[in-house]
Amino acid sequence: MWVLYVVFAWILSQVAANSDENTIRLYAKSLTTRESIDIGSISVDEKSKAQFISSEKSFGEGEFCVGTADVAHHECFAVASGPSIATGVFVVQLDQLKHIGSISLQNDASTSSRVAVKSAKVVPAPNLKPSTKPPKPQPEIRRVKQTTTDSTGATVEVEVEVEEEPKSWIQKNWMYVVPPLLILFVVLGDDDKK
After folding, report:
1. In angstroms, what is the C-alpha Rg of the chain?
2. Are 24 and 51 within 8 A, CB to CB?
3. CB of 111 within 8 A of CB of 50?
4. Which of 40, 75, 81, 139 meets the CB 3.0–4.6 Å disulfide criterion with 54?
5. pLDDT value at position 20?
6. In angstroms, rounded to a whole number, what is the distance separating the alpha carbons of residues 63 and 57?
7. Is the Cα torsion angle 147, 149, 155, 158 positive or negative in sign?
C-alpha cells in the first residue's frame, strides 16, 4: 500500500514540475515526400524565459511545412526551406496566463538565440450585442360600428375590431404644419411679378 503512496507522490511532483513550464514539440513535414522530421522542442518557464532544444537532425533541400500539435491551429504555421529552418528564430507569443498561444518562424541572422518570447497584446473584445432598434409598435385595435346587409336583406349595425397602424409624426401633426406653410406662400407671393 505504501508503494502506491510513493508512486502517487512521485506523479504529483512530476506534474508540479512540468506545470511551471510550457513545452511544445516542433516538426517539419516535407511538402514533396510528406516525411515528418523532428525539429526539437521549445520550453517556456513561468518567468517567460525560453529554451530551444534541438534534435540535431539535418534537413535536405526542398520546402518544409513547420508545425506543432501542441498549440491549436498550428499544424503548419510556416513554410520554409531546409537551411532556413536550421537557422530561423522561433517567435513564441504568450497569453495572459503565460501559456503559449501562438508561434511563428522568422529568418533573422542578427540574433544568436533560436527563440524569442513576446507577450500577446490585449485587444478590446468585440461588441457581440450591438444596439438594437426598438421594437416596432404593435397596431392598435379599435372597435368600429359598420352597417352591413345580412342574408335576408336587412341592414344590420355590427361592431367590428379593426387594426390600425400607428401614425407617424407628420400624420398626427399635419394641421400644425400645412396651414402656416400656405400662409407663408401667400404672404411672400411671387417674386417674378415685381
Report:
1. 39
2. no
3. no
4. 40
5. 46
6. 16
7. negative
Cell of 175: 394641421
99 contacts: CB under 8 Å, gap ≥ 6: 22
Which pLDDT score is estimated for 55?
79
Give me the residues of the chain with pLDDT under 50, please.
Answer: 19-20
* pTM score: 0.51
Residues in Cβ contact with 37 at an 8 Å cutoff, skipping those fewer than 6 apart: 27, 28, 29, 30, 57, 59, 64
Beta strands 78-81 and 50-54 are unpaired
What residue ranges do the domains of the chain occupy? 20-119, 140-186
67: Cβ contacts below 8 Å, ≥ 6 apart: 26, 27, 28, 29, 74, 75, 76, 77, 78
Is 54 in contact with 85 (CB distance < 8 Å)? no
